[in-house]
Amino acid sequence: MLIQFKDAAVAPLWSSLNLAVDRGEFIAVLGPNGVGKSTLLGTILGTRKLTAGSVDVDCRVGVLRQPRLVPPALPLPGRAG
User: Fold this and answer.
1) Edge to edge, what strands does the sheet with 14-21 contain?
2) Residue 57 near residue 2 (C-beta atoms within 8 A)
3) What span, in angstroms and rounded, lies between the C-alpha atoms of 12 and 1?
4) Is residue 64's pLDDT more than 70?
5) Is 20 within 8 Å of 12 (Cβ atoms)?
6) 18 vs 9, 54, 56, 62, CA distance in Å?
7) Beta strand segments in 1-81, E
8) Are 52 and 7 in contact (CB under 8 A)?
C-alpha cells in the first residue's frame, strides 16, 4: 500500500476511516463544503494531525486544487441590504 488509513479519525469530521491506495490507483475526493475533504488531504500531506488511528504514506502525493475564478486582488464593489 502506498497510502493506508487504519481506523483514522479527525473529530468531529470523520472517524473509523479504513482506506488503502495502491500504486497506479487514482482517487477523487468529492463532497459538499465542510465535510473534511481538505482535512483528509492535509492528513496525507502531514499538515493536519489525526485525533485517532494512523495514516502511512509511502509515496509522493500530488494535489490539484480548484482554481480561483476571480483573482484575489480584484476589487469587488458591495452593497448591504
Assistant:
1) 14-21, 3-10, 52-57
2) yes
3) 27
4) yes
5) no
6) 10, 9, 12, 21
7) 3-10, 14-21, 52-57
8) yes
